[in-house]
Amino acid sequence: MKKLTALLLFFSLCVSVTEARIVRVVIDKAESYANGRVFGAAGQYQRLTGRAYGEVNPSDTHNNNIQDIALAPRNARGMVEYEMEFILLKPVDMNKSNHLLFYNVPNRGNAFPADTTLLKRGYIYLWGGWQGDIYGDNKLKIKVPVATENGKEIIGRLHTEFIVSENVPTQNLSAGAFSAQYHTPYETVSSDNKTATLTRRIRAADEPEVVPHTDWAFADCSKEAFPGQPSTTRISVKGGFDPNYIYELNYTAKNPLVLGLGFAATRDIVAFMRHSESADNPLANQVKAAIGVGVSQCGNFLRSFLHLGFNADEDNQPVFEGLNVHIGARRITLNVRFGRPGGGGMQHEEVVFPGNEAPFTWSKTYDPLSGTDGGILDACQKQGFMPKIMHTLSSTEYWQSRMSLRTTDVYGTKDLEIPDNVRIYLFSGTQHTPAFNSNINKLTGFMANTNSYLDSWRALQVALEQWVLVGAMPPPSIYPKLTNNTLAKGAGIGWQPVAHIPFRGLLNEMYVRDFGPQFDEKMMSGVLAETPVSKKDKRYVVLVPKVNADNNELGGLETLTHQVPLGTYTGWSLRKAGYGEGDLAVLEGMYIPFAKTKAERIAAGDSRLSLEERYPNHTDYVNKVKAAAAGLVKQRLMLPEDAEREIKKAEQLTIFNY
């Protein structure tokens, strides 16, 4: 106990202001990880939980592009302060580490668990809070200041949206469909709802209808009937929010947070752990290189992090040598007044939300529709340091996040050249997050997609590790292209009708949009207008992967499940009646099993071959799995231990008793 107390006191010492702008580190808890489990040659791990206190110079060129940084309160040294929570996971014996710092960006405050395979390789895991509007237990947070003008509250008109999966009476203001109840609401300046407008519509393309002021209120009805208790942070609807509708609210909000400090804090904590030789840096002189990984919202965070120039610290040292941007195709509205970093911009959800604007591409390109010239890596190029990047994707990012615009011109007529430091991989036939079972999805009425990309993702992460640490080239990019005829418009992908499966060729279309004179779409920064203006004469051509006779996708990295299929696996699905019928279902795909026998297939009018016609017996299926697994391992797209596990699963299947 005395040793632990001494350790906590030791790490709470102050550090030099000149070192990565982290001025104080406090370790609140030091403990053995996973009950002392030994992770291969890396041995046991220690878990440190703490807080990092940072400050940034608002006049420094590395910081002055943070939205409203000039309006943030300053300390006696003229600096803007923040406090971030972090978790550090490191080998007890650092001689057994591979000395690679693996920064795992928390998603809405949630730290994704460490991967056992990577721990066995000696990775050093670090998670740090970056989203200043998150609240709730067991979430990594960051405290950032509120912007004011000469000590006065800042107000502004705010457009927000509410979509629910079941009837509920009350929602947080400005929560949105993705952050829901874990987003700190921007308060309304008045509880009189006549200063605001609430509308609703069933589908995204429908004309909205105004909800009468008598049927909703700035109020909390979670414990009593409508109109409930007046509230400046919550909204209630008479009869509750109906899951069949998209609700949109325009109101006057106050007290915007300086959320862009989340970029600086991420830069600073990684730079501190990497470069500081201070005695209170638990990783002093132990880090050879750093890789950042962001999943979904966090992948969008990393794209913006690079684009805004945060991959160099205030001493112009590199932050990340490598990045794994996973299932994130757009940018994030963090560096925005009244920002809402949880926003989605999907086909049905938050359609008017920014984040998908040009530049789309990693390399510099010119967009003749918007007039934008540039790429995500422009700032990195100016800094003289280009990180190695893996951009991994599910099929959903093509249907919902317009991924094709990252690899083709805006008219969908030609493929673009991908920079040498970037690899792009589409995991064919996968949904945004793999389902662990094929249960019926509530929004769609169809089986969830169980085609998992996790094994191939893990293999590619090891390839990125080797690319960064020893310069070993990773597998070449694998994604659909126009040149090999694997990209098409929604209705032209080659979908074969399957009984009871609706197909509309619907995808998330896109137009150039104007968010007002105070917003910079290129830099995704500034002050948003209440609602954007879509320029219908400037329409982008969004493409999606073509499919084969089984309705399974072409052109991407084929997982083991995709190569030896038991059905059709999609990255899209449509909403059913009662949930905005006919629109795309947020991040869901489908699993459509093959008929078991030829007779069943013919009776159902299914053109896809049955299991019986594909795999004469169980042994044939297992042999095909073994062959596919061997091919993936040889291409470094699957690790041997993962291949062994999947082969055993195939041997245990009992569905081939025709």
Describe the structure.
It is built from 13 helices and 31 strands. It is α+β, with helices and mostly antiparallel strands and about 650 residues long. The chain has a domain at about 155-255. Strands 1, 2, 3, 4, 5, 6, 18, 19, 22 and 23 form a 10-stranded mixed sheet that branches. A hairpin with a 4-residue loop joins strand 20 and strand 21 (about 370-375). The termini are far apart.
Topology diagram in text:
Elements: H1 2-11, E1 22-32, E2 45-56, E3 80-91, E4 100-104, H2 116-120, E5 124-128, E6 142-143, E7 148-149, E8 152-153, E9 155-162, E10 168-172, H3 176-179, E11 197-201, E12 209-210, E13 216-217, E14 219-220, E15 229-230, E16 234-241, E17 246-254, H4 261-275, E18 289-295, H5 297-307, E19 322-326, E20 365-367, E21 372-374, H6 378-383, E22 388-394, H7 396-399, E23 422-427, H8 454-470, E24 487-488, E25 510-514, E26 519-520, E27 525-526, E28 533-540, E29 544-545, H9 560-563, E30 567-570, E31 590-593, H10 598-604, H11 611-614, H12 618-634, H13 640-651
Parallel strand pairs: 4-5, 4-18, 18-19, 19-22, 22-23
Antiparallel strand pairs: 1-2, 2-3, 3-5, 3-6, 7-8, 9-17, 10-16, 11-12, 11-17, 13-16, 14-15, 20-21, 24-29, 25-28, 26-27, 30-31
Helix pairs in contact: 12-13
